[in-house]
Amino acid sequence: MKLLIVEDEPKTADYLHRGLNEQGYTVDVARTGPDGHALALLHDYDAIVLDVMLPEMDGFAVLRAIRARKQTPVIMLTARDRVDDRVHGLREGADDYLAKPFSFLELVARLQAVTRRGRVQESTQLRIGDLEIDLLSRKAHRAGNRLELTAKEFALLALLARREGQILSKTVIAEQVWDMSFDSDTNVVEVAIKRLRAKVDGPYERKLLHTIRGMGYVLEVRDAREAP
Amino acid sequence: MKASIATRLAVMFAVAALGVFSLVGVALYRVLYRELGRHQLSEVNTRLEYVGMMVNRNDNAVSWQNLRTKLDTLTPADDSVRYWVLGPDPRFVYGDVPAELRERLGTQAPRPFMLELEGRSMRAVSRSIPPKGERPAVQIVAALDSERFCNTLDTFAGALVALCLAGVALVTFLGYRIAKVGLAPLSSLSQEAQSLSPRDLSQRLRLSPLPRELSDLAASFNGALDRLERAYAQLEGFNADVAHELRTPLTNLIGQTQVALAKERTAAQLEEVLQSNLEELDRLRKIVSDMLFLARADQGETALDRVHTSAAEEVSKTVEFLDVILEEAGVSVRVEGDAHASFERSLFLRAASNLLLNAVEHSERGAEIVVAIARRESEMRIAVTNPGAPIPEQHLGRLFDRFYRADGARRNSRDNHGLGLSIVKAVAKMHGGTVFATSAEGRNTFGFTLSDAPLAATPRLAGRESREA
C-alpha cells in the first residue's frame, strides 16, 4: 500500500509518516501544494492524505488539480470542522474528511475504509487463537465451549475479530456497533468491553482482548509474557 | 461626526426664519410699491386736472400768457414737477417738449407712463383738451419726479433686509439657546453614561430626573447594561471554568512528563507515562471540540444534514446504546409517544444521549426514566423525566449554561466536564428550538424542542481556513 501525505506542519508530517510506515504503508511526504500535486500525478498512490492549509496552493486547489487527472482516494485534513468546509471538500471530490485534532487510529481506520474497496470478500469464519467466530450463524466458541453473547456483544466481538491486531478506538467501536456517529461522553464502550472480556477471556489462561490505554482495544494472540 | 443637535436645530431655525422673513418682506415691499405708485399717480392726476381746468379757461392768446406765468410758478425750482402743453398752434403751447415725450405721445394712448428726462425718471400723465375759442385742440402733460418714491422704496427695502437678517440672527441665536436648554437632560444623561466605569458593571442610569422621552431611552439602555452584565458575568465564569478544565489535564501532562524525564526510566515506565498523557490529551481534545461545537452554535450555525425521521426510533437507539450504563445504574427507560421531524441525526442522538445520561446520573436505583415525545404545531418536543430531588427555581433556567452546576462544587469526573446540557441547548438552537427544565412533585424534567420551520441558512465562509482556526 502506497500513500502520499501532503502536509506542511513538520511534526504532523513526521508522525504521520512514521506511524503509517509502521502500519505497513509505504509513505511519501510532500510539504507544499505544488509538490503534492506533482507527486500525486507522478506515482499511483493507493490513497492521499491532504491538508487543507498549505503554502502556495491550498488543499482544495490541489484536490481539484488531482481530480482533473486521477481518481486516487483522498482524505482531507483540516483544523476547522465547519460543515461548510466538509461539504466543500466532499463536493470537490474528497473521499473523506478529518478535523484536527484527530486520532491517529481514526485516520488509519478511514484509510482502510477508502482503500478497502474492490478487495476480496472477507471470510465468514474467523479464528483467533482458540477463539472461533462464525459470522453467518452469529455464534462464537472458545476452546470448544459456546460463548453466550448478546447481539451487541457478538457485534462487538465480530468487529474486533475482523480487525484482528488493529487497535480500535472507542469512537470507531461506537460508530460500528451502535451506529452512534458522535463523540460520546459516556463509558458505554468501556463497560461493554468489560462484559465481553468477562465472557471471552474470563475463565481462560490466555487473554485475547487487550486494552491499549488512551487509544482503544485490540483482539489478538500475544505472547504470554507480553500480556498485561 | 454629525453636528450637535443644538447646532442642527439652530441651523434649521435660521433657514425657516429666513424663509418666513423673506416671504413677509417681499409681500410688504410689493404692497408699499403699489401704494406709493397709486399715491403718486393720484397727485399727478390732480395736477393735470388743475392744469386742464386752466387750459380750458384760457381760450385766447393774451390770456395764454397768464397761463404760462401760472404754469411757471407752479413748476418748482428743482423741476420735480413739469408741465407741457402741446398743440398745432405755436401760440398755444407751453414748455420745451423733449423729443422723447413727443415720440411717446405720438405712439401711445393717453395713459400714465414713465419718462426719462435729464437723468431722472418721471411719472407722466397726458390728456387731450378739445378746442375752444381761438385755441385749437391741445394735449397737456403733467410729470412728477419719482425719485422720492424710489428713495422711499429703497430705504424701505434696505430696512427690510436689515431687519430680516437681524431677525434671522436672533432666531438662530435664540433657537440655539432654546435647543441647548431643551437638550440639557440629554447632555446630563450623556455625562452620566460617560461616567459609567467598566469596573462596576452594576451601575445604571438614573431615570427619575429625566423627561419622558429620555427615560424610555435610558430604560432601554439600562436593559442593555443588564444583559451585558449578565453576559459578562457568564463569560467571566465561563473563562474561569474553561481555564480550570484545561488546567487540570495540562498540569498532569507537564508534571508527569517532567517527572518521567528527570531520571532514566525503563521503557515500561515511559510507556505508562505516554499512556497517561494520551488520556489527558484526549480529555483536552474533547473539551476543545465541545467548545468549538458550542461556539459554532452560538455563531448561528444551523443543522443542514436534516433527514425526516421518527424521533422515538432514534431515542430507542440511544437507549440501546446506553443499555449497559442503564443496567449498571439499575434504572429503566420508557419511551412514550412519537413524532416525525427533520433533524440532523448525529446531533439529535447526541442531545438525547446527554439528556438520558443527565437523568441517569440523578436517579436512584430502581427508578424509571420516561422519555415523552410529542408534537405541538410545528414543534417537536422531547422531554426526559426522572424522579429526583427538587431543583430550586433559580437553578432551573441556568442548568443549560456551560459548566453550570447546581451544587456549586466541582465534581471531578472524567467523562463529564459540565457541557452535556449546554450541548443539548446548542443542538436545539441549531434546529431552531429551545430547551426547558421543570421540577415538581419529585419529578425533574429536562427537554428540548425542534422546529420544523426552515431556518435561514448560515452565511457561507470562504473556503480558505485560517491558521488560528
TrEMBL record, chain A:
Keyword annotations: DNA-binding, Phosphoprotein, Transcription, Transcription regulation, Two-component regulatory system
MF-aspect GO terms: phosphorelay response regulator activity; transcription cis-regulatory region binding
Modified residues (4-aspartylphosphate): D51
GO BP, sorted A to Z: regulation of DNA-templated transcription
DNA-binding region: 123-221
Annotated OmpR/PhoB-type domain residues: 123-221
UniProt xrefs under Gene3D superfamilies: 3.40.50.2300, 6.10.250.690, Winged helix-like DNA-binding domain superfamily/Winged helix DNA-binding domain
Response regulatory domain ranges (all copies): 2-115
InterPro entries in UniProt: CheY-like_superfamily, CusR-like, OmpR/PhoB-type_DNA-bd, Sig_transdc_resp-reg_receiver, WalR-like, WH-like_DNA-bd_sf
Any Gene Ontology CC annotation: protein-DNA complex
Organism superkingdom: Bacteria
PANTHER family: REGULATOR OF RPOS, TWO-COMPONENT RESPONSE REGULATOR
UniProt-listed NCBIfam families: cztR_silR_copR
Protein name: DNA-binding response regulator
From TrEMBL, chain B:
Catalytically driven reaction(s): ATP + protein L-histidine = ADP + protein N-phospho-L-histidine
InterPro entries named among the record's database cross-references: CztS_silS_copS (IPR006290), HAMP_dom (IPR003660), HATPase_C_sf (IPR036890), HATPase_dom (IPR003594), His_kinase_dom (IPR005467), HisK_dim/P_dom (IPR003661), HisK_dim/P_sf (IPR036097), Sig_transdc_His_kin-like_C (IPR004358)
GO molecular function: ATP binding; phosphorelay sensor kinase activity
Subcellular location: Cell inner membrane
Positions of the Histidine kinase domain: 241-454
A GO CC annotation given for this chain: plasma membrane
Record-annotated HAMP domain positions: 180-233
SMART domains: HAMP (SM00304), HATPase_c (SM00387), HisKA (SM00388)
Annotated TM spans: 12-32, 156-176
PROSITE patterns: HAMP, HIS_KIN
Catalytic activity, EC: 2.7.13.3
UniProt keywords, alphabetically: ATP-binding, Cell inner membrane, Cell membrane, Kinase, Membrane, Nucleotide-binding, Phosphoprotein, Transferase, Transmembrane, Transmembrane helix, Two-component regulatory system
Predominant localisation class: membrane
PANTHER family: SENSOR HISTIDINE KINASE YKOH, SENSOR PROTEIN
Alphabetical list of NCBIfam families matching this protein: cztS_silS_copS
Annotated protein name in UniProt: histidine kinase
Organism: Cystobacter fuscus
